[in-house]
Amino acid sequence: MERIICLLAGYLFGLIQSGYFYGRAHKIDIRNHGSGNSGTTNALRVMGAKAGAVVFLGDFLKAFLPCMAIRLIFREQPAMIYLLILYTGFGVILGHNYPFYLSFKGGKGIAATAGLIVALDLWLMLLCLVTFVLIVGVTRYVSLGSLVVATILFVWLVLFAAMGIYEVPPVLRPEFYIMAGLISGQAFWRHRANIGRLMHGTENKLSVGSGKKG
Q: Is 36 within the bounds of a domain?
């Protein structure tokens, strides 16, 4: 029951579409511009740096806050707490990527994933942040940085859970690994067009306020 509640609560938080609402406040539907996504990168490209920062913060917090709430609510259940955080974060990502009231047309879930990562593990956050900044700084491919972070997230969670770092009991580890895979897998699924462009050398590089497709 706790899993279902966390998943549904996360989805409801994920429905807070920062990019869509910010765009509407400025008389545009962000989904009709640039890449057609309502996330941070498209907001940055279409509406500029301020929009990108506001949208990122909104999408980050809608994952971070409920995941931290789970930490507090289930602090007496260390065997379940990290698994339930994953359920909550996955729910947020699903709500962000597939909002029912916008015909299931949302973003790609990277800012929400960042909020989940910070709520999970500050060391993991530091590794992902440094890696993302380095990759995007050198290549200017936000999609590549995002995919590498998604890979790090999955490998880190599987490795450290197997080592007992997160106090996940052996009986729950397969479920924990599956949730980690689903979260990372969403990033790859939502970036499938970007992956194709990266492979063909046609992916657009990071730009601000240009409205490029990406």
A: yes
Tally the residues of the chain: 214
Beta carbons of 141 and 203 less than 8 angstroms apart = yes
d(CA 210, CA 84): 40
The Cα 189–Cα 98 span in angstroms is 13
- Residue 50, C-beta contacts closer than 8 angstroms, at least 6 positions apart: none
- CB 8, CB 100: distance < 8 Å: no
Give tens-digit pLDDT for 7-52.
Answer: 999 999 999 999 999 999 988 888 888 877 888 888 888 888 898 8
212 domain-assigned: no
Minimal CA–CA distance to 200: which of 136, 134, 141?
141
In terms of residue numbers, what domain contains 110? 2-200
Nearest-angstrom CA–CA distance, 87 and 7: 5
For the chain, the domain total comes to 1
Residue 75 has a CB neighbour count (10 Å cut-off) of: 9
pTM of the model: 0.91
Cβ(175)–Cβ(108) below 8 Å: no
